[in-house]
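Backbone-to-sequence.
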């Protein structure tokens, strides 16, 4: 408490609600796991007598969310329409149910949010209760929706053009006790002839059948765009969950492979992401909101290969990695590349602070820091560190489809040189391949193509190159031949074994509005996802890539989905895994 603001503390709270223009208040989150397909029939609650506190000062409110885009700096102004004008939160509890995986076991999650304190903005007063009693009535299914026995662990779906090249990969997996089935897209479309309104939905229905009849846990999609043509080897689904009031420009859609992983809703029914059947998937705007479960029912990754050569490269890299990755001490290096992400009023050096937090979550690893507080971040400094080898690498800053960058401290306004696609051409780390996590916008936007230059000129004329607001489309980097994350992953003779990054606009928190001494940059949005990934491997010992990625998404949904914010939905939808979800990090030698 100070003369101007009051902080509300509740011992039983899990964390604080931190959303733009809304009061910062405590919430308690409880998660119950039921048998898969359990239906929540009714939820009732009672509260004891409500105590009202009139405030003489104001509560802290959530600040802006900060974009992670590189190339042009945008400011996100406060949206006055988002300001709370009544009791917040709207009720003493909220809840949601979702069907998903809990470390390879299918369950129905029931997530309960209890709000012990609510704020009346009209009278500047707090409503507080000591006890909330919640009664949940539910009905378990008579039969299981999914098979109890696993015929296959991993399903690989690829166009027939790639299938023969993938055979050594399938053989390798089967030899190492990962029961694997390769199915061509043509077979998928043939088997699902009567299912699905388009090819993407046919693939999703096939995954559903593979879960139910084969017991599949992991799914690997192989195929991206057809070279630079603009067509697809393996189709994508675009999400239309767009928080216009919280991001720096109107990104009307973005790729989400979570669509393929979210097979079921909380009742065990097919999760279409188009509940109003209007043909526009994953909509959430001012007038329309599709029902989306969002919890992954399989651990899914994609190799968005554009050519036979890229498929050959990835097959060789994955097989070699799992056979002998642990040879030498290089694997125990943890590379962190970061700087001062934003020019914020608190003058936090956000990127380096979250880098140190990630290092704390990876005990036993040797931290290798490439920090803007010590040196420029450029081709030389990044490649030098990567060429020595590391088991993990973490880039936290700003991105575009073709570049990644951050700022020098202390005011977060002067750009470093950065690390671009052309810099990776001089990267030669051989088989010393890291798993890479990237904080930044659009680094995994894998629908880019050189054809976009012609499209931009057609649509915008010479304004395509405009260097003043509103900036021309050229500066968004969508004319890159490959996106940054995939270029790094698919590089011959080095690069990464897998990369996790955003297909759309990445976002972090600003300030420390909950007053706990930890910058919100680390506690919400992309920051939470990135740190949770390292926590699962470094502290909790989860060492299968897809499980780490999937459990990170599940944990985020548990903690934030119940607060009914579009930005939280976007965070999980755009967090893409380029890699084999069944990959054993550190190799499979001695593991059967």
């Amino acid at each position: 408490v100070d003369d101007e603001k009051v902080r509300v503390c509740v011992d039983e709270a899990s964390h604080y609600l931190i959303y733009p223009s809304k009061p910062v208040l405590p919430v308690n989150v409880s998660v119950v796991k039921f048998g898969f397909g359990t239906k929540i029939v009714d939820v009732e609650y009672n509260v004891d007598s409500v105590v009202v506190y009139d405030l003489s000062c104001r509560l802290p409110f959530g600040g802006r969310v900060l974009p992670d885009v590189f190339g042009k700096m945008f400011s996100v102004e406060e949206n006055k329409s988002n300001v709370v004008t009544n009791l917040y939160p709207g009720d003493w509890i909220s809840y949601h149910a979702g069907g998903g995986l809990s470390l390879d076991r299918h369950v129905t999650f029931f997530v309960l949010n209890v709000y012990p304190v609510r704020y009346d903005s009209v009278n500047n007063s707090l409503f507080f209760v000591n006890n909330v009693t919640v009664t949940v009535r539910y009905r378990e299914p008579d039969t299981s929706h999914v098979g109890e026995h696993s015929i296959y662990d991993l399903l690989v779906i690829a166009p027939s053009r790639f299938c023969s090249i993938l055979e050594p990969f399938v053989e390798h997996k089967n030899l190492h006790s990962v029961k694997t089935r390769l199915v061509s897209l043509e077979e998928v479309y043939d088997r699902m002839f009567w299912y699905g309104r388009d090819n993407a939905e046919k693939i999703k229905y096939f995954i559903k059948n593979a879960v139910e009849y084969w017991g599949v846990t992991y799914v690997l999609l192989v195929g991206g765009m057809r070279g630079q043509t603009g067509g697809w080897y393996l189709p994508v689904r675009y999400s239309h969950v767009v928080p216009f009031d919280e991001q720096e420009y109107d990104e009307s859609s973005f790729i989400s492979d979570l669509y393929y992983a979210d097979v079921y809703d909380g009742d065990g029914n097919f999760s279409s992401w188009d509940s109003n059947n209007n043909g526009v998937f994953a909509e959430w705007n001012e007038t329309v909101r599709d029902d989306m479960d969002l919890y992954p029912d399989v651990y899914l990754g994609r190799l968005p290969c554009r050519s036979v050569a890229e498929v050959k490269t990835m097959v060789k890299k994955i097989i070699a990695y799992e056979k002998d990755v642990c040879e030498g001490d290089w694997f125990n290096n943890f590379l962190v590349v970061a700087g001062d992400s934003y020019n914020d009023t608190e003058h936090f050096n956000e990127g380096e602070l979250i880098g140190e937090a990630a290092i704390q979550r990876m005990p036993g690893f040797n931290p290798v820091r490439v920090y803007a507080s010590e040196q420029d971040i450029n081709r030389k400094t990044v490649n030098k560190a990567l060429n020595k080898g590391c088991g993990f690498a973490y880039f936290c800053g700003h991105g575009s489809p073709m570049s990644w960058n951050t700022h020098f401290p202390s005011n977060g306004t002067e750009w470093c040189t950065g690390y671009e696609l052309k810099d990776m051409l001089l990267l030669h780390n051989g088989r010393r391949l890291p798993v890479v996590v990237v904080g930044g916008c659009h680094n995994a936007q894998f629908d880019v193509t050189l054809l976009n230059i012609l499209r931009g000129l057609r649509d915008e004329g010479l304004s395509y190159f405009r260097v003043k607001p509103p900036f021309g489309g050229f500066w968004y980097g969508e004319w890159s031949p490959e996106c940054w994350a995939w270029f790094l992953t698919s590089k011959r003779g080095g690069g990464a074994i897998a990369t996790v990054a955003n297909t759309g606009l990445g976002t972090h928190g600003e300030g420390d509005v909950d007053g706990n001494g930890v910058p919100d940059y680390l506690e919400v949005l992309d920051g939470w996802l990135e740190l949770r990934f390292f926590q699962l491997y470094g502290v909790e010992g989860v060492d299968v890539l897809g499980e780490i990625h999937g459990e990170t998404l599940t944990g985020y949904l548990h903690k934030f989905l119940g607060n009914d914010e579009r930005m939280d939905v976007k965070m999980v939808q755009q967090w893409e895994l380029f890699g084999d979800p069944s990959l054993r990090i550190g190799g499979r030698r001695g593991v059967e």
